[in-house]
């Protein structure tokens, strides 16, 4: 039978200041881990909100620099949104999935397929917690690479095998976060092992979390 862990614990890291473009996020996290007296062990997973990664990587756009095109202006009129923000959304998107506005809504809804394959509101272009007016945050250009880079730096610093998951709600109700960086998860190869009910496993590779499905 498998010897599976019986306990799950979560620790929030306190004392992390607002992240700015160019910040060394791995170093900031390492210092926060130490200052919070957290001891990392093999198999621990750090879950990071995408906004801090995006900020550190400079994925921040001032709307003052954006000139909306014809499609952006048309969608903005339909949805009562800032045409500059619509232009940023279109640049981040493969396609618009749906755009609609109910009469009772101040602003309409724009669902798009992000260039990374995620289908979400506004192609994950976000105005909240940016720190500056008329500024939006984009997703990291390559969340997998970002997660691998942060993971490698922290593993070297602490000498343990870790996983790093970068997440976002993607505008879904309930505040649930979805992973956008499955490549940095620690997987556990179980060859010639047994399931919990005694069935032999010929070649399963269970992961501690489920990635957001991508095309």
Brief overview, please?
It contains five helices and ten strands.
Topology (elements, then pairings):
Elements: H1 25-35, E1 45-49, H2 50-56, E2 60-62, H3 70-79, H4 83-92, E3 93-100, E4 109-114, E5 119-121, E6 135-137, H5 143-158, E7 163-168, E8 178-179, E9 193-194, E10 200-201
Parallel strand pairs: 1-7
Antiparallel strand pairs: 2-6, 3-4, 4-5, 7-8, 9-10
Helix pairs in contact: 1-5, 3-4
How is this structure best described in words?
It is a single chain. With 215 residues, the chain is of the alpha+beta class. It is built from five helices and ten strands, in the order αβαβααββββαββββ. The chain has helices at 25-35, 50-56, 70-79, 83-92, 143-158, and strands at 45-49, 60-62, 93-100, 109-114, 119-121, 135-137, 163-168, 178-179, 193-194, 200-201. The chain has a three-stranded mixed β-sheet. Strands 3-4-5 form a three-stranded antiparallel β-sheet. Helix 1 packs across helix 5 and helix 3 (70-79) packs across helix 4 (83-92). The longest helix is centred in the last third of the chain and has 16 residues, at 143-158. Residues 188-192 and 202-215 have low confidence and may be disordered.
